[in-house]
Design brief:
- This protein is α+β, with helices and mostly antiparallel strands and about 110 residues long.
- The protein is about 55% helix and about 15% strand.
- The chain has a domain of about 55 residues: Ybab, Chain: A (2-Layer Sandwich).
- The protein has two helices and three strands; from the N terminus they run αβββα.
- A three-stranded antiparallel beta sheet has the order 1-2-3.
- Helix 1 packs antiparallel against helix 2.
- The chain is rod-shaped and about 70 Å long.
- The relative contact order is 0.16.
């Protein structure tokens, strides 16, 4: 029975650490850029877009498609940074525990 109590204690600690990590992710902000920095997007650790900056020289009707493509590229850059940050934080939380492919925390 002692092992079950130990497992319950570890589960509670993991749950507490997970809540802390989620709060940290919500506060974290990462920026992505495209077009040599002409388009910048800032997202939080949950992937919510917080800010977009577009160089005024791109704001012409002729550059509409270019701007659209740069926005997508900048967002994808920011999203990749968020995913890398999340992976790093999860690695810290799980102590390097190798989870099976496709298994994501929180469940």
């Amino acid at each position: 029975m002692k092992n079950i109590g130990q497992l319950m204690k570890q589960a509670q600690q993991m749950q507490s650490k997970m809540a802390e990590m989620q709060a940290k992710l919500a506060e974290a902000e990462m920026s992505g850029a495209a077009g040599g920095g002409m388009v910048r997007i800032t997202v939080n650790g949950k992937g919510d877009m917080k800010k977009i900056s577009i160089d005024p020289s791109l704001l012409t009707p002729d550059d509409k498609e270019v701007v659209e493509d740069l926005i997508v590229a900048a967002f994808n850059d920011a999203k990749a940074k968020v995913e890398a940050f999340t992976q790093d934080e999860m690695g810290k939380l799980t102590g390097g525990l190798n989870l099976p492919p496709g298994m994501k925390l929180p469940f």
